[in-house]
Amino acid sequence: MKRNGIFFWIGATLFLAAALLMTQVIGNQYPFFACYVILQFIVLAVAWSILGGYAGYVNFGTSAFFGMGVYTAVFLLKAFDAPLAAQIAAAAAVGALMGFALGLLTLRMQGIFFSIATIAATIVIETSITNWRYVGGSAGIQLQRPMVTEPFNNYVQMLFFIQALLVVLAVAISRYIQNSWIGRGLQAIKDDELAAECTGVPTLRLKLLACVISGALMCAAGAPAAMYLQYADPSSAFNLNYSVSVLAMSLIGGTAHWAGPVVGAILLGATQQLLTVTISSEVNVLVLGVMLVLFVVAAPEGIIGLIRRVLRNRSEGKE
Amino acid sequence: MTAPETQAPLLRVAALTKRFGGFTALDNVSVEIRPGERFGLIGPNGSGKTTLINCISGAFRTETGTVVFREEDITRLQPHVRTRRGIARSFQIPRPFKSMTVAENLLVALDFASVGGDFILAAQRRDTVMSILTQMGLASKADVSATRLSQVELRKMELARAMATHPKLLISDEAMAGLSSSEVDEVLDLLMSLASRDITIIMIEHIMQAVMRFSDRVMCLDAGRIIAIGTPSEVMANQRVQEAYLGT
């Protein structure tokens, strides 16, 4: 376990170093634009999996959290001209609060009822923002990027690196949860909630905790998106596509291990970017749907589940 | 345990009533269980045995009545809090954590139910798990997935998981149903050995010879009411019990 931890942190440091190096070496802006989106999806998918994967509570409200992140940033920028770090920190706090409130309201419901409640919450929040003039209402709002800080020479490069930092943060948290008593409790809830409760697991409190952490990370991932697009409007910030994509990425990657959503987000995110550039942004939704159906039928435990099965078969073959 | 504590009942159920819509599953049930007692709970199907257990363990909320455990009113406590207070149970239909190994199933209990167990080292936890599994005759299955267990192993694992919460009161809900007679003896011996270690046990069972052999006292429920309570032979000799079972 301890050696795994060292390897993990070496990997995370190498990843950040590579991301930083990219910003210094590559002059072309497009790779950063594309990779930013993929990194953003990694954070969202990893965060989603904390509640959706470990505890098995399928949350369709990713876009609600993401959109709230975007609009927290918009509000702080307009009201106080707040720096990016403050926007992200505030978004995380808003996300945590929102996760707590949403969790209190909905986590007593199980299975499909919880999922429906999260969709309803998304619509309520989107409608509220749409009717809030200060942040642009339904027409949206244009935003001006401030000057970029050293060592970056371009704002998108900086956003790219910040999103890479968020990836490391999200993965580290998810990995910690998986290996700790929290993860074991969530797994017990997923397997059998009544048995978990009767074994001493405080099910509601643990689900709330998962919802708070997951919400904080999803909101934080949304905050830099305002500056990334230099524009925000409710229908794109709260687009249901975020919920569906993130769900598909987590399920295709596999939710039993923290690496699953990372793999799924890279695979699907990269495919989507490729298709958007080469064919059209409409086609990528179709491809997403087809891949999801294929995986649900052929590999219900995702890529991670598939790898595990192959490894298990091989080790049994040896014996 | 000090002398005055042994005098007081471990569990006191008073005037408990539970309704499901218009159906009264438990009707004004009152019973006291003494510390260290081996208590048998019998009754025909649908008589309210499992409902009573669910009310004691907290899975159901009751309409009226109180449940007092170790002189503390636990009627409004959530199930996981009751588990930490020392009430553990097994389920009529086994409910293992299917994605985990047998040892991990027990670790859930160690992680969440044992008081002051937060800072136990991983190696010590493994030792605790293994010693419980050894008692239950499941040591060789520690790292096997819970989905690969046989029926009798599942029953034993449920008891082991309950034991890992360090209970003072263990409720076994038909742990012998559907087992062969040699397996029944195996599980019965297990329960006997647990009872000899200061654990109070409530056993719900349909297998009469097991109830007779195991229990200090037996209570018979029928249609949500207590129709007899006493020593096993007294209850068996009771006319109403015979009627309830034989339907004369």
What does this protein look like?
The complex is a heterodimer of chains A (319) and B (248). With 319 residues, chain A is mostly helical. Chain A has one domain. Chain A is built from 14 helices and two strands. Chain A has helices at residues 2-25, 30-54, 62-80, 84-106, 112-130, 155-179, 181-191, 193-198, 203-229, 234-237, 240-253, 259-278, 281-298, 302-318; strands spanning 141-142, 231-232. Chain A has a two-stranded antiparallel sheet. The mean pLDDT of chain A is 89. By secondary structure, chain B is of the alpha/beta class. Chain B has a domain at 3-94 and 168-246: Rossmann fold (3-Layer(aba) Sandwich), CATH 3.40.50.300. Chain B has ten helices and ten strands. In chain B, the strands form two sheets. A six-stranded mixed sheet of chain B has the order 6-7-8-3-9-10, with helices on both faces. In chain B, helix 4 crosses helix 5 (122-135) and helix 4 runs parallel beside helix 6 (151-163). In chain B, 45% of the residues are buried. The chains are: A mainly alpha (319), B alpha/beta (248). At the A-B interface, helix 7 and helix 8 of A face helix 3 and helix 4 of B.
